[in-house]
TrEMBL record:
Lineage: Bacteria, Pseudomonadati, Spirochaetota, Spirochaetia, Leptospirales
Biological source species: Leptospira saintgironsiae
Residue ranges of the TM segments: none
Stated role: Specifically methylates the N4 position of cytidine in position 1402 (C1402) of 16S rRNA.
Reactions that this protein is recorded to catalyse: cytidine(1402) in 16S rRNA + S-adenosyl-L-methionine = N(4)-methylcytidine(1402) in 16S rRNA + S-adenosyl-L-homocysteine + H(+)
A Gene Ontology BP annotation from the UniProt entry: rRNA base methylation
Subcellular locations according to the entry: Cytoplasm
UniProt protein name: Ribosomal RNA small subunit methyltransferase H
Keywords recorded for this protein, A-Z: Cytoplasm, Methyltransferase, rRNA processing, S-adenosyl-L-methionine, Transferase
EC code(s) of this entry: 2.1.1.199
């Protein structure tokens, strides 16, 4: 029984993900899966349960999350190969160096941030607690959110908040940040959340969401260079997945989804794969009611095998 003090972990769109894999694979086959964003290990646990003769490569860039996922999957440890890495590092040579010689039959990416990161990582991902503004998903260093807030020039901050956060109050928020940092450094998540809350008039706060949500999202994307890693990583994974295999990607942001949509479309045009989701699969009403955080999730799936027909796969969906 899970510790009642721990937040409930939801595996977003898990029914759809398992259904897509079962539509292609016999559940009793000896398959190799790869979870490129292990997180809490929820999706990996379902794959190990549903495909009892399969093995799974468990990947996460955060050593803390990888350890938590391994603990959750301890009953299946003989079938799990843990690797601390960013999914954008993965190619056949990299996997070979870690003892994985066969290409994965099924690959999954869940690009959402975990509940643990939001509530317990202590890295300033959330505005609920007053934590140091860090936001790094990896333990290997790099620039922090505090560095971004306190050193980036006005133009760069504006670009981040407007493009990555789609924040309509960008101009006033950046002005307030520049004014504040003339007097003192902004070092904690609570300080930044309060600043943004004061800038945006209460009547314009998004219903059911903290007014600083978009700013925090934009900062996390910048600090971890998430869009760049998606562009690089998904290209590599399209090449890595075995013939006849599936690549499934869950995104939570329109910029992420656009990258995946275009990469999948272009790859399918080459005749080496078929799109199984011309429009993304979305969570059901029941799932969004049970787990409101899933409401913005989009799942795209590509099957790496020759299409059964030559009809054009184009049917552009709305972002």
């Amino acid at each position: 029984m899970e510790n009642e003090l721990e937040p409930v972990h939801y595996s977003v769109l898990y029914r759809e993900i398992i259904s897509f894999f079962l539509s292609v694979f016999d559940k009793d086959r000896e398959l190799l899966f790869l979870d490129g964003t292990a997180g809490e290990g929820g999706h990996s646990l379902l794959l190990l349960e549903q495909f009892p003769n399969s093995k799974l490569v468990l990947v996460d860039r955060d050593s803390v999350m990888l350890s938590r996922a391994q603990t959750r999957l301890s009953a299946y440890s003989s079938r799990v190969i843990p690797i601390e890495a960013n999914f954008s590092d993965l190619d056949s040579e990299f996997l070979n160096s870690h003892g994985v010689s066969n290409p994965p039959d099924g690959i999954l990416l869940d690009l959402g941030i975990s509940t643990f990161h939001l509530l317990h990582a202590g890295r300033g991902f959330s505005f609920r607690e007053n934590e140091p503004l860090d936001m790094r998903l990896s333990s290997s260093g790099g620039i922090s959110a505090e560095d971004v807030i306190n050193t980036y020039p006005e133009k760069a901050l504006s670009k981040i908040f407007y493009e990555y956060g789609e924040e309509r109050w960008t101009k006033k928020i950046v002005e307030a940040i520049l004014e504040r940092r003339r007097h003192s450094r902004i070092g904690y998540s609570g300080d930044l959340a309060q600043l943004v809350s004061r800038v945006i008039p209460r009547k314009f706060w998004p219903p059911g969401r903290h007014p600083a949500t978009r700013v925090f999202q934009a900062l996390r994307i910048e600090v971890n260079q998430e869009l760049l890693h998606i562009e690089i990583g998904v290209k590599k994974l399209l090449d890595l997945v075995a013939k006849g295999g599936l690549l499934q990607v869950i995104s939570f942001h329109s910029l992420e989804d656009r990258i995946i949509k275009n990469l999948f479309r272009d790859y399918a045009r080459g005749g080496e794969a078929k799109l199984l989701t011309k429009k993304p699969a979305l969570p059901s009403d029941a799932e969004t009611k049970e787990n409101p955080a899933s409401r913005s999730a989009k799942l795209r799936v590509i099957h790496k095998s020759l299409p059964t027909d030559t009809e054009e796969e184009e049917e552009d969906d709305e972002e």
